[in-house]
Amino acid sequence: MNVLSIGGSDPSSGAGIQSDIKTFENHGVYGLTVITAITSQNTKKISKILPISSDIMKSQLELVLNDFKIDAIKIGMLYDTAIIKAVHSMIKKQKCPIVVDPIIESTTKTILLKKSAIENYKKMIIPLATIITPNRQEAKILAGTSSIKKAAKVIQQLGAKNVIITGYNESKKSIDDFVLESEKEYILKGKKIKIVNHGSGCNYSASIASSLALKRSIHDAANYAKEYVFQSIKNSKKLGKGINITHKKISRMQKELSSSIVDFQNIKNNLKLIPECQTNFVFSKIKPKKISNVLGISGRLVKAGDKIIQAGELKYGGSQHVATAVIEVSKKFPEIRSAINIKYQPELIVKAKKKGMKVVSYDRKKESKNSKQKENSSISWGISSCLKSTKPDIIFHKGDMGKEPMIIIFGINPDEVVKKILRIQ
Fold first, then answer.
1. What is the pLDDT of residue 52?
2. pLDDT over 60 at 375, yes or no
3. Which of 3.40.120.10, 3.30.230.10, 3.40.1190.20, 3.40.50.960 is the CATH number of 2-250?
4. Backbone phi, then psi, for 372, in 5-degree steps?
5. In this predicted model, what pLDDT tens digit does every residue of 182-240 receive, in sequence order?
6. How far, CA to CA in Å, does 194 sit from each of 12, 84, 231, 233, 400?
7. 44 neighbors 14 (Cβ within 8 angstroms)
8. 3-state per-residue secondary structure call for 194-258
9. Is the pLDDT of residue 247 over 80?
10. 193 alpha-carbon distance from chain centroid
């Protein structure tokens, strides 16, 4: 997936296109950049701003757009009317999601969007937005009202399809965002950290752009971005002599599992794969010994209307049952590190066998009373009882009293797990 950032250059890498590149990398997408302005700044101040000429702007955009398939665009700092017009002329026909982050003033109180350019910004840039992400002050400037809900509706009337106003409501320990989609509105709650920082707004919008490129829903993208920003502020570093720079490092395993979850969410007719107990998808460290060695979803993959959404973040120890299954299989086949549970359907088992996949099963009715009474031991007993000399692709059981039948698909990594699901679809 390719995500294009259009914005200003920040030599401190706390914000701007440099920050966006780091966020894109953390989300497992490839970042492209078009520079709108060169700034002289550090963690204490911005001293000079040099806007890029409209000719150079158009040249950058033309070459990037002609060479790459763009899956999402993030628009950040647009300093003056000439830049706004150049971006509008080149971007207006793009079909991919566009995230607009209205950069009006820096954390150090420097004006980054000229007052003379605001009306053109409203007319030319806001209508491009699949999602626009102003904070409270930016929303007030764009909409002319202090009422958050009224401001969101005004901005939507200006042409933005969806509006997210960050910092809708704040207290000492929490900070909420207001989301206005085309047909619904809601509030996303989150935790607050008292750290003055440089880059959180860029982190948020770049995270959303990445998620839209990965086909996440608006709700999921906003939720994921909120958690990402919380962690980036929590892990921010005082690298210069001024305010902290946000910092978040996502591991290769997190990127792989996150990408495969999106692939699973995009499988045709995937709703029928979700069991009553819902689905988890895991990826373990090499030779896992305990649940905390296995990355999983702290909630589940759940049905929401005609979609599957990720309810919860990726964390070690996020899954118990599927993680336990991987731990047991890896004891005999250490190359197996990933698995997903899906709804038991006899036809899937038949297809898997026809495709030459190794399928084994166990009978939960044969489990001893002692094992059943011991918490979280049924999975360990079942998996270990059916493992043979051949590495399994699928292990299933037909349930028991109060226990839902289940299929677990295994792979060396999450991508292989998804490919196995596609083979039996």
1. 93
2. no
3. 3.40.1190.20
4. -65, -35
5. 889 999 988 877 777 767 888 899 999 999 998 888 998 998 888 888 887 777 778 88
6. 22, 34, 13, 9, 51
7. no
8. CCCEECHHHHHHHHHHHHHHCCCCHHHHHHHHHHHHHHHHHCCECCCCCCEECCCCCCHHHHHHH
9. no
10. 21
> Tokens in use for 343?
């709804």
Find, among 384, 250, 402, the residue nearest to 329 by Cα. 384
Residue ranges covered by each domain of the chain:
2-250, 255-424
Q: Which two tokens stand for residue 156?
A: 């939507």
CATH number of the 255-424 domain:
3.40.225.10
pTM: 0.73
Give the torsion sign (CA, 63, 66, 69, 71): positive
Give the other-Cβ count within 10 Å of 402's Cβ. Answer: 5
Radius of gyration, alpha carbons of the chain? 24
pLDDT one-digit tens code per residue, 24-57: 988 888 999 999 999 887 778 787 888 999 999 9
Paired tokens of 126: 């806001």
